[in-house]
């Protein structure tokens, strides 16, 4: 029997779109949790390149980012022996099931998707059908693997709710076919905000590179970005500093890097200047990211190793996905291949 046949752990699925640069916010909000959970869950971690093409991409850059993101998953500590890491486009069942689920998704449901509305405003020159039907592909990503849990943030919660509705609708129309996934909401933790616009989360796709710390930023770039981070008109750290959006964000980042409570961090910097905080935070970031970047550089130099990880991951994912899709075909009444 294969490892997949004997797996008894709950299945956890997540993925990141290969756009922009993986940032500190991605690590704190997603990748760190993946690493911490891999002993208790069977993780399926994708680079969702099919989702990426709802926006025009430069082919060479997209290929490079896909490989880079996968290497960063590994550098962060995802164990390919305990989990599956693959590129979404290497598993054709995603696209096939997405078409089927489109036929079980109502126009009214898609019209209510706030992310489509937001992206339509940002990409007015390319409001395509793929952008509109994006939630059906996301549903396929999840339902193919009989997923138990899906980590969700506020921006994806609506999509997961639709996925659950689609699964229930299909199950009720035919018979139980898909496991209805549950949202996984991590314990309330640090929320890393933009370094320049503290009203929004740090985003890997931000057009202003000064707003985020990339996991691959060299030391001099990290120091420059932290030095330019917004603060306020005060000059030194006090007990009230955590309530100041800019300063509070820097204190939060420091607390995450050093695994300290905010209160301990505030006490540590009490009566020190903002420049002291920025200098020490920059040093902490450089030290924190150095081993990650060293592992990443080694993986990227070993192209054969990375290719093998992705090929093996795709093979294992196709095996799992084909079992679900075969069941779906049978329920729908499709004629099995090879039969008259």
Structural commentary:
This protein is mainly alpha-helical. The chain has two domains: 3-185 and 302-332, 3-Layer(aba) Sandwich (Rossmann fold), CATH 3.40.50.620; 209-297, Tyrosyl-Transfer RNA Synthetase, CATH 1.10.240.10. Helix content is 55%, strand content 6%. It has a three-stranded parallel β-sheet. Helix 9 (157-173) links the parallel strand 4 and strand 5. Helix 4 crosses helix 13. The chain is elongated.
In short:
The protein is mainly α. The chain is built from 14 helices and five strands. Helix 5 (93-102) packs across helix 8 (129-143).
**Total strand count, please?**
5
Strand content: 5-15%
Q: Which blocks of ≥5 consecutive residues have pLDDT under 50?
A: none
The helicity comes to: 40-55%
What is the count of DSSP helices, taking H or I runs of 4+ residues?
A: 14
Give me the Rg, rounded. 22 Å
Give the mean pLDDT. 90
Q: Which second-level CATH architecture of the largest domain applies?
A: 3-Layer(aba) Sandwich
* Tally of domains: 2
